[in-house]
Amino acid sequence: MAGAGRTELADTLFGQMRMDHGAIYRDEKRIEVGDPHDAVKQNLGYVRENRIDSGLLMNMSVTENLSISSLDKINRYKFLHRGEERELALDKIVGLDIKLNHLNQQVKYLSGGNQQKVMLGRWLAADSEVYLLDEPTQGIDVGAKAELYVQIHNLARQGKGILLISSDIQELVGLCNRILVMRDGKIIKDCKSSETSEEKIAALIS
């Protein structure tokens, strides 16, 4: 439910906001996430709802945006290895079918769907273990949505963890095996998608 604290939860998990109390656990082990740098070290990836203001570097190239979370992998003696950066970007461009004119094209000139693919590709390149996806299909066309759904299913099959935040109930029921409903910053319902329905979820948030 919009305004329920969903995005604030994701921001906290990724270290964008500080917790007043509580702890973060992954695979039954406590992890420390004090800031986004810690989150990346803990193999967390975050596709934010507002990709323009707080996700993509709009005036930088597609290649730079795809590689920015993987610089440790492609640096050599504190120098950026441009050849490896290009290979990394090409791999994600082909794998995600990102439509662009050239590798140095600025991200701001891509369509909304392709911008969203770049955001996801950034964390795929970093080989994240847990993906925080906040409204990943918002503002993109039906075809781009379908392609992102395929990528989400692929990640799940690889054993990656996915926290999907969405106001699209059909999307939640179709993609998730577990659904948490939040209101006023608190979880008011925790259910398996196989044991609920769009109508039941809609009733909870109305």
From TrEMBL:
Classification via InterPro entries: ABC_carbohydrate_import_ATPase, ABC_transporter-like_ATP-bd, ABC_transporter-like_CS, P-loop_NTPase
Domain (ABC transporter) ranges: 1-205
GO MF entry, a single one: ATP hydrolysis activity
Keyword check for Nucleotide-binding: yes
Keyword annotations of the record: ATP-binding, Nucleotide-binding, Repeat, Transport
Coiled coil: none
PROSITE patterns: ABC_TRANSPORTER_1, ABC_TRANSPORTER_2
Gene3D superfamilies tied to this protein: P-loop containing nucleotide triphosphate hydrolases
Keyword Nucleotide-binding in annotation: yes
Designated name of the protein: ATP-binding cassette domain-containing protein
